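Can't paste images in this forum, so I'm doing it all in text. The chain is below; anyone willing to post the predicted structure tokens underneath?
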Amino acid sequence: MKNYDYLVIGSGIGGLIFALEASKKGAVAIVSKEKLSTCNTEYAQGGIAAVINKEDAFENHIQDTFTAGAELGKISVIRKIIEEGPDLIDYLIKIGTDFNKENIRLDRSIENIALTREGGHSHKRIAFAADSTGHEVEKALIARVRENANIDIYENQMAVDLITQHHVYETDEFIPQRTCWGAYILNTENNKVTAFRAKKTMLATGGGSQVYSHTTNPEVATGDGYAMAHLAGARVANMEFVQFHPTAFYSPTGDTFLISEAVRGEGAILRLQNGETFMEKYHKLGSLAPRDIVSRAIELEIKKRGEKFAYLDATGIDRDKLKNHFKFIDYKLTKRGIDFTKEPIPIAPAAHYFCGGVLSTVDGLTDIKNLFVAGESACTGLHGANRLASNSLLEAGVIAYRASKHPSMDQDVEFPSIMEWQDVGEFNENEWVIISHNNEIIKTIMNGYVGITRSRRLLKYALKRIDNIYTEINNFYQHNPVKKEVIETRNLAIVAQLIIRAAISRKESRGSHSVIDYPNRDDLNFKKDTII
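Text version of the structure:
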């Protein structure tokens, strides 16, 4: 057993900011499934939305966020997070984040930060580092973490379960409140599980878009935080709202990657394969409409033509500006033989971001005592039914920082007797097909039946299939020593169940949840969160 004051599961912006701030109070362990940089933050291209332009105002950003979220977000939460946006930018600059510069003076002490605009935003307010903002943020945070003597880093380690009442010997008396005392951590290189005991645990495991076969997310995004928290008894909220990014590079082989929304912010236009524009039919902002609207429009237009992709045309943007701002995209496209200064980019929507998650306060508090959550793992009330572009890193950073300053961080903890992990049986290689086969089936079912546009009949059919698959996987899990692939497939099945159950319960279309049986919004009955 390993003992720490603070355990951080996940190594994106939320986990690393929490770790840095918590290290001022005690010993910290960071657990990362692969390398520290293998996370959704690393892949974030666009930037961080914050009101630092004199021509902008907090109220504008608040309204843009509320509107993009189909008016399901919590105004008080939105206000708190957005008003702390400038402080987050200042914090990231001070730890070494190198944002793009422009020779202008902005509000507060922040000067010369270049700003761009993305879909759903009424003003230029996106601070960025070319088209690799997440990479730049991760680089700065990882450098500070690695030089911090109070932080231990555990790479290639995966959380299996949160340690709660399920895993303690209640020999003296019952513990009345559901409480977290750390987690069981699997070393994926030797398949050994160790209990990490901690006073406070931060769940910052990112999203779960690997539950879909077509996604912009890295392979590690298997919904581990949602699954562990749900199994431990925490509530999850709004899991039906899975945001599909409208402009993922289309490849017949499935070799996709994100084409940043900032490309449209700089003037790129969506076109059909015949060259026609179409977004003006769906929203007054055209190609800069909120993501849910753009994704549905693209899907509708290409399906009715029997096509598999549309185009993003950036040829009208100045060549030097395009190549300097979007170096990563340029590199990726050039490898595939595309010069986006001269020809349009083939694109199609792909699963990108979970607007729901583990129910939490604006300070990252969950239903479970001593358990915090931040980033895409959390449902704070910021995003509502659809996330506004570049609000994700903003939310993760602000919530993690607030959590690290919460008064409960200083409270001492009396630990019960925690069970050591017990492996069961010998690994059954003959039954490995249960895991490998079902992993692919889950993704196929979700992509086909629980995608951008849904029907209740197919949702119910999908739930029956996924329930049966979960039973098979869980039975394998209960009778075999744990492996990374087993845990990930179990977690994907749980996440799929949560998405489908939430989608079935919402009998309306709102934000990123669109169901053909109920094509309109129903504010009277469903202007509320879906809580499981």
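The mean pLDDT is 93. The two ends are 32 Å apart (CA to CA).
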